Amino acid sequence: MSVLIAKRLVAFVLTLLATSLVVFTVMRVLPGDPAAIILGTGAREDTLLALRQQMGLDRSFVAQYLAWTGGVLIGDFGTSYTYAVPVSQLVAERLSVSLPLAVFAILLSTAIAIPCGVVAASRRGRAGDLGISAAAQLGVAVPNFWLAMLLVLVFAVGMGIFPAGGFPGWEAGLRPSLKALVLPSVALALPQAAILTRVTRSAVLETLGEDHVRTARAKGLTRRAALWRHAVPNALIPVVTILGLQFSFLLAGTIVIENVFYLPGIGRLLFQAIAQRDLIVVQSLVVLIAAAVVVVNFLVDLAYLAIDPRLRTGSGDVD
């Protein structure tokens, strides 16, 4: 266990360093002057020069990189060029929307996908399997932004059950805030549930063909008992892997959905920062997202150990 933790910590540090360097370099190579974007194209050259000095853009690449990474290490991500507030404050405000949205979506996706995948595997080749497989294929093919607009038309514009967009803020109360997240969560969850259903079905089918399941059946265990006691637990490792990847995607890849529903989350903040060339916000968000992905992957590795006791008797690594 200690070897696993040490390896993952080293990978965590190296990944963040590589990500920070690549992002910092790309943002400096891209065309466009942040000072000119802030002041406008008609700004005087001396005014632009003064703003560049204030923003630290007149320093060398190495000096800028070291200053930024040094601040990140102590929790200081700098100040947004556009909003003139600390980046950490911006991230905290937007994360209060994106994190619940991602959690709701992954819970809904899991609640739909795992039962559907198990049912499809247990009824292979029959009507239930064909119906679930067809629905999963449709869910994979449908873009989530199209599904989001369809949900708005039906449940917001047509039926008036949920708001079409916007977020009232948690201070407005739990009920209106949760209602504002229902349609975005469904739009995010259904395509992910389709993918997870197919993975669950394949994993369970593969496990059903293994020797220990056939032995359990030969000893008199019913098909249902063999399915839930032996096949499903042993099929969870690939399912947990996909869940980890999906949660990372939902936390970081909600740009389109948050823009469709006008949600003030991390994805929309990243989109706005890129459009406004707010370098410090883009850099910080990408590094934080990379850190979140590495942490989720580490938690997935720990989940492997909890699911499969055989891994705890090995070298301590799950690779």
TrEMBL record:
Pfam families listed in its UniProt record: BPD_transp_1 (PF00528), BPD_transp_1_N (PF19300)
Main subcellular location of this protein, as a coarse class: membrane
Residue ranges crossing the lipid bilayer per the database entry: 9-30, 65-85, 97-121, 145-168, 278-300
Sorted UniProt keywords: Cell membrane, Membrane, Transmembrane, Transmembrane helix, Transport
Coiled coil: none
Protein family (similarity comment): Belongs to the binding-protein-dependent transport system permease family.
Name assigned to this protein: Dipeptide transport system permease protein DppB
Species of origin: Lutibaculum baratangense AMV1
InterPro entries: BPD_transp_1_N (IPR045621), MetI-like (IPR000515), MetI-like_sf (IPR035906)
Membrane topology reported for the UniProt record: Multi-pass membrane protein
Keyword Transport: yes
Subcellular location: Cell membrane
